[in-house]
Amino acid sequence: MQSIVQKICVPYEYPVYFTDDLFSPENPCFLNALMRREPWRRHRLFTVIDEGVADRHPALCERIGRMADHHRSQIDLVARPLVVPGGESAKNDPSAPTRLHQAFNTHRLDRHASVLAIGGGAVLDLVGYAASTMHRGLRLLRIPTTVLAQCDSGLGVKTGINAFDKKNCLGTFAPPFAVFNDRQFLDTLLLRDRIAGIGEGKP
Fold this sequence. Notes:
8 helices; single chain; two-stranded antiparallel sheet; 9 strands
């Protein structure tokens, strides 16, 4: 009998941007990140937004649309952004990943397409889980919109949803394709939420 030990080492790297007004057509961060591996082709993009973020930034969907239209030769925005409930309830709904999978399938997203997730840590976890389990991994771009998410879940490689009365019972390790920390999203947070995020995120 012979036994062979297989060893696999897979290095990962992804950019983390710190910026303001990410979706301004004059801001190169988003386009640079999206095209960094394949600058010669048009990139298909689907966006998911935390409902709380959409409520506090009512012009966000239009800003994303204008940015994509400005770069129409490089970006194919396949649909209007999908708005999903935020907070921990986003991870407690067992049908939420399936609805995202259905949206990805409807818009014919494959492993060369990108999913942009905008929201707090719970929504980033949910969208990351759904993206990582579709076609064995869609490219995920994260925009964390809370203080804690900008120093924790937005930057990390873990995804997950709650199941069987257990937190993060189902999940994956899936590094994002890029992360954008846009200070303007923090401007609409209550002072209490900023302080709480700093307190919890402090090492």
